[in-house]
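Protein modeling request. Please complete all fields; requests missing the sequence field cannot be processed.
Requester role: graduate student
Desired output: 3D structure, token encoding
Chains: 1
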Amino acid sequence: MQVSVESPSKVERRLTIVVPSQRIEQAVDAEVVKFAKTADIKGFRPGKVPPELVRKRFGQEVRNEAINSVIQETLNEAIRQEKLLPINQPRVETKLSSAENGLEYIATFEILPEIGPISFNIDKLEKLTAQVSEQDIKNTIERVREQHVKWKKVDRAAREKDKVSGKIQMYGEDGKPLTPESMPLEFVLKDEPSIFGWNLLEELKETKAGEERTFKHTLPQEAFLQGMAGKTLEFKIEVIEVAEPELPAIDAEFAKKLGIKSGDIEELHAEIRKQLELNLKRSIKSSMKQKVFEKLMENNPLDLPKSLIAREAQHLHDENCSMNQHGGQHKHNAEDQAYFEELAKQRIHLGLLVGEAISKHKLNPSSERVNEYLAEFASVYADADEYIKRVKADQRQLKEIETFVLEDMVVEKLLENVSIIEKEVSYEELIAPKQANPEK
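Delivered output (440 residues):
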């Protein structure tokens, strides 16, 4: 067997493999014996069919099976011989196949890129820091009160913080409705954009039950899942009911609902501070990790295998778009494809670099660091010890914790010779858009 290797790109390999006719004929002889054992030919008992008759009756089929078997065997041999690790199914193209000249074929596949020395060429990096203030605690309590709101129907025009219930119909740029009928709508009027990028406070304030409002709005680019990014749609909203909020009092009963058994408000404030400080610590670490990983990818560009990108993009798509999304009508359009392919490239690029850094520096998450991470993560739970036991009993969850610890260790290693410049900001600036929820 002769093997030659070509590299059309850094992540693609093309093997040309030539197999002598003798090996092909040996494989044909072996296949004839196999056929003879199972062939069903009138006049012969099973397993007693003469090989010559098998060749005459099934000659081409036997030869095809033999060639397929030889291709599989010799391809595996060639891959081992050349010390290659394909990451996708090789694409095989037969160039020559004859009894006189043997077999010649080409196998093309992708491999992971070779990663040389990892570069991290930055002198300094900004680190955002913040402190938890009393106002942050009050803001958190207000958000939690809103989560426990009760709604009282009112017979007046809608205003800020009211909840409007009704029906909505959307029309495309061609004027046709996008759904067969109007859909239910419930919306709290706040001075902020929604997922569609609109501000319904502006559109629905001063409306009453029984009234309709029609307006046009251009969807933002983030609306990729609807396949409507950048399109201007018309929205028709029928108001059915207006309700005003009734927030719970900040008293012992409220504190008990949030897990403070004593009902003490000061204890509630202390617990919220503890959780906000933990959220802050996580956000600072997450922000630094993101900055470091972005610089890592910027400093170390890689050629990525197309097959790996396609698989990861499909995986990300399936994670985010269930089969039942949009009533089962969701389609994987070109806009979705581009979005998920970009996410896949980033995830693969980063994964390869982090994996190389772990291997290069021989990083290993010690049980002490895993326990420390787990204890911190569990500290927000009332049953922290039980939570830790459950995680340690679940190998998948424990592996995820170890992965987080390894990522932290990579960041620490990369920052060893980098000057950290701290910048003080407010808690809200640093934590946004995440919000703390002290409920357990």
